[in-house]
Specification:
mainly beta; Hemopexin; 5-stranded antiparallel beta sheet; 45 strands
Amino acid sequence: MHSDARRRWWSQPMYLREYWDSIPFDMVDAAFVDEDGRTYLFAGGQFIRYSTADYTRLDDRYPANVAGFWGHVSNNLQRTGTVDAALVLDVTENVDGLDVPRTYTYLFSGDQYVRYGDDLTTVQLGYPRPVADLADEPGLSALEVSLDRVDAAYSDRRTAYLFRDGVCHAVSTALQRRYTDVPLSDVKCAFIEDGSIITGGYYGDWHKRSAFEGREVTATPFRPRTLRTVPEEFRTYLDSVLSGADGNTYLFRGERCFNTQLNRSYPLAEEWGRVRNTIYEDDAVDAAFVGLDGRTYLFSGDQFVVYADAGQTIDGVPRSIEEHWAGLTSVALAYVKGERTFLFEHPGDDGSIRYVVYSGDGYDAPDDGYPAVTDDGFFDAPDGFPFPAAVLFEGETMLLLSGERCVSFNDGTGRWSAERPIARLWPGLGADLDAPDTLRAAFTALDGATYFFFDDTYARFAGGTLSARSAVRERWGLSATPFTAPGGGVDAAFVWRAARLALNVAGARCPQAVRMLRCSRSRPGLSSSWLTFAMPGKGDRQCAGVGAHGFR
């Protein structure tokens, strides 16, 4: 039948033999008009072609066999007989709501690949496909680049590795995978040496193991090269071995750490697990006060710490002065007078001093108009008395302390005193100081005692008695850390991407299965951001693999 597009009607059905006598078939199975205007008709195993619009004459050499012309697919493997790379990949596919494990074999040739299932004699339907479509394959959906070909490939139980132009593309199906079939019940310590996994057991034995994510895991008795020259006590029964990003190797056993570069051991709490803490690192306090909120604040460098009560452990971790005190970058002097709290920054090169004032017991935001700028004449003290290192109060009397001298101002009389030695008010204070050691800060604490801070020491004055000076870091800025708890140690340690370090902490008082703590160290070659974990009991020994996409 045919149509008249102008009149919009179709003819009655007609027999091919009667009205299209150039067709050599009794019936037509299929037909189409190509982009070049030629018409193709198919019947059984043959086809014909017309190149004219009136369909009166077949093209030469037609009819022709369908099999000899149609259905040919460009196949690099058949054409060249060359395989560039081969890959066997274990995947899990969801079929009708069920997870089904499957194994596929891929052969790469040029810009194409083919896939085999269990039958390696026949390529699966729909192949070959372009290498650029690899991300459509099960287990390879995380491939974020479009490859033009693959030079080499291999896989383990978690990750496929595809090589192209000297670049390895690692593709994992998940960020994490747990392996319960790897025999790890005896593993107490693990580290990498010369590319091999070395594990130590609870009985002091060492083994070299094949990759945990391999399809078979083997263990061979081994004597680690790293431990051959260290003291006997650090050759066995180690809790952890850390190959640091600084190129050094650290051995952890119990509460001690052995530094292989220094060839010395020391209590690990002296160096490890500490957050960045300028009070501890610099052994100094710049300013201190007890706030109207009942909390104690100490400042050192660009950090401050808070004590929630009269205890010796700070609340939380050291914090940034700039982020919490209206943009001040340091605090050289702080005190509370009446219902107002004053904080002064260290002087600038031009002698100017920024300061802030807070009214009431809240320290979220300063009063309007602050920060403001002043100079060393802020207190208008007599006889050119310098800007004080500390301000203390006795009733209505304000005392300014600087070096070994002090002056006082009485609010009731509105008069300044004459300048006098500090030791006259606090006998013995500063008597054993050697220049340039001098007073840095002072404050009256919640326990009623007055604490005086010098360059790297402090003294306590209470009941008319001045204590001996002690190191600042022995009493101030102390933070809770599992490493200093009785029996605390390191269960495991590793460097992540050569920039971040993770330590498993033994003895951590934490109800959760895993706890993460951000801390920092000023060791050359290491990032200031580290991760610390507290793990569940040692009886739960399994292996978890981290995917190529990231760390969780």
